[in-house]
Amino acid sequence: METETLDLVRSIDGREVPATGTWTIDPTHTQAEFVARHLMVSKVRGGFSGITGVIEVAEDPLESRIEVVIDVATVTSGTADRDAHLKSADFFDIETHPEIRFTSTSVEARDRGWALTGDLTIKDVTRPVTLDFSFLGITQDPWGNTKAAFSASTEVEREDWGLTWNVALEGGGLLVSRNVRLEIEVQASYTG
Fold this sequence. Notes:
The chain is built from 2 helices and 12 strands; from the N terminus they run αβββββββαβββββ. It is mostly beta strands. It has a single domain, classed as Lipocalin. It has an 8-stranded antiparallel beta barrel with strand order 3-6-7-8-9-10-11-12. A two-stranded antiparallel sheet has the order 1-2. Strand 8 and strand 9 form a beta hairpin. The longest helix has 8 residues, at 80-87. The chain is elongated. The model has no long low-confidence stretch (mean pLDDT 90).
């Protein structure tokens, strides 16, 4: 089994990449998180657990494609009241816009990792984003399934997607930062 796993990693231009084929995102082991400033000083974290998608690894890694769908109703931030507010029309408006989508448009080598550019759609607004993207390796789970791990991150301005709700603070500044850091950890299963 170890040999099969090693066969699914290849080296191109000194970089390890997964084998060509389809890797299906495992929603139970994948997390997309966001980090925003609250009251201009502290960080508040939240995330989504309902993530599905496919990674199509091409012979030339620069031609690979990724499609991801996030179920916005799975948003959690550690506080029920804040979660309800995030689901409301003030933010994600899950009744009208139940999904967030990401479709890659290009991959390029960058430093030790990759730059993954794609179209991010939130609330029917689509804008390009570029993520720092890393392939972390391949292993087998105890049931013999081959898994790959990936990590990605970027910073976006939430108002670009119509997430404009805020409150001005008496001493200056805003209740919630405009800039939000996105951090994504993906585990995917090899399906051939």
